[in-house]
């Protein structure tokens, strides 16, 4: 979706404000909402792509007016509601209570998004590609500022969970993923401050087409 | 009841636009949903305490500083780190959530690396901990890709025009850790002394390591 969360290249967001010696959490509720989400995710109440999409679906004005951990709280509330955890009867819910003795295993073990895929990658390293000009209504990790632009594949990273499917309950749906480099000139035209500069990001195969094809 | 609280909050938002989400409201909403989940047996308070302790006290940018110092001091480690970052980070125990696929990118005379997440707040937790507020904020996320040199200047960093500024937008599940250039005049320093020079911002690419003199003052 073309939400306000897709911030790359927007103007008018104001100066960057720094806080020297910033604490990890500013308020106790921030600690609690952070830990609540991680523990509940360990119990399977929603996946990371559903979590991100819950935040993206916030009304744009609310998104910009609220703090980072308030975004997390909105997602926690949304995830609990969607999983039916706020209802009286939860006997049928597959969500489990994540136990404290497994915390270290989860934190230090991680949850890899890399997967196996039999299909061969469609694009080769060094190929010029175009990021497709698509505007899906649902979740996507294709930032708007690269859509329709031509870049160069610098690495094939393997197959990874495809967020556009995973956020909508369609399973991990693994797809090949590539690191793609775009020149500042390709992205910002004559307004690029230094044509030597580049932006590099990861694009899944469904986001790409051959550079010769019309966008 | 939490449901009632939420509905009320929702109406409130529609009526007043930006005038919502006061500190008291947020605290109450968090408390309400936490209590409900604990009462229903879906949330273990001990698991929450462990998570808070890990990310508040044990997992932070001092981890990344150890990686950088070791790479500066030990050329073999640096080579392993750049060839297979996850394996080299695992040698020091820096594995896990939001760092499963960390890639270390090296600053040189030709390339200065800088990391952002324009879509949310992706950040290499095992080596840097949780991100600072500015990294998660719209001003940084919007400008880092379009005007990286302007952002760097706001952080007090000036990169020569001949050097490529390479911005890594962490839009997928890969995470980036910048290996800054070793400051001059640091020959003979131990790994521990070198680690004292490594700042969090230098590992995001919006700062430079301290000089030995800066570290003393």
From TrEMBL, chain A:
<feature type="domain" description="Nitrile hydratase beta subunit">
    <location>
        <begin position="113"/>
        <end position="210"/>
    </location>
</feature>
<dbReference type="InterPro" id="IPR024690">
    <property type="entry name" value="CN_hydtase_beta_dom_C"/>
</dbReference>
<dbReference type="InterPro" id="IPR008990">
    <property type="entry name" value="Elect_transpt_acc-like_dom_sf"/>
</dbReference>
<dbReference type="Pfam" id="PF21006">
    <property type="entry name" value="NHase_beta_N"/>
</dbReference>
<comment type="function">
    <text>NHase catalyzes the hydration of various nitrile compounds to the corresponding amides.</text>
</comment>
<protein>
    <recommendedName>
        <fullName>Nitrile hydratase subunit beta</fullName>
        <ecNumber>4.2.1.84</ecNumber>
    </recommendedName>
</protein>
<comment type="similarity">
    <text>Belongs to the nitrile hydratase subunit beta family.</text>
</comment>
<dbReference type="GO" id="GO:0018822">
    <property type="term" value="F:nitrile hydratase activity"/>
</dbReference>
<keyword id="KW-0456">Lyase</keyword>
<feature type="domain" description="Nitrile hydratase beta subunit-like N-terminal">
    <location>
        <begin position="1"/>
        <end position="88"/>
    </location>
</feature>
<dbReference type="Pfam" id="PF02211">
    <property type="entry name" value="NHase_beta_C"/>
</dbReference>
<dbReference type="InterPro" id="IPR042262">
    <property type="entry name" value="CN_hydtase_beta_C"/>
</dbReference>
<dbReference type="InterPro" id="IPR003168">
    <property type="entry name" value="Nitrile_hydratase_bsu"/>
</dbReference>
<dbReference type="InterPro" id="IPR049054">
    <property type="entry name" value="CN_hydtase_beta-like_N"/>
</dbReference>
TrEMBL record, chain B:
<dbReference type="InterPro" id="IPR023900">
    <property type="entry name" value="CN_Hdrtase_asu/SCN_Hdrlase_gsu"/>
</dbReference>
<feature type="region of interest" description="Disordered">
    <location>
        <begin position="1"/>
        <end position="23"/>
    </location>
</feature>
<keyword id="KW-0479">Metal-binding</keyword>
<feature type="domain" description="Nitrile hydratase alpha/Thiocyanate hydrolase gamma">
    <location>
        <begin position="25"/>
        <end position="207"/>
    </location>
</feature>
<dbReference type="InterPro" id="IPR018141">
    <property type="entry name" value="Nitrile_hydratase_asu"/>
</dbReference>
<dbReference type="Pfam" id="PF02979">
    <property type="entry name" value="NHase_alpha"/>
</dbReference>
<keyword id="KW-0456">Lyase</keyword>
<protein>
    <recommendedName>
        <fullName>nitrile hydratase</fullName>
        <ecNumber>4.2.1.84</ecNumber>
    </recommendedName>
</protein>
<dbReference type="GO" id="GO:0018822">
    <property type="term" value="F:nitrile hydratase activity"/>
</dbReference>
<dbReference type="InterPro" id="IPR036648">
    <property type="entry name" value="CN_Hdrase_a/SCN_Hdrase_g_sf"/>
</dbReference>
<dbReference type="InterPro" id="IPR004232">
    <property type="entry name" value="CN_Hdrtase_a/SCN_Hdrlase_g"/>
</dbReference>
<comment type="similarity">
    <text>Belongs to the nitrile hydratase subunit alpha family.</text>
</comment>
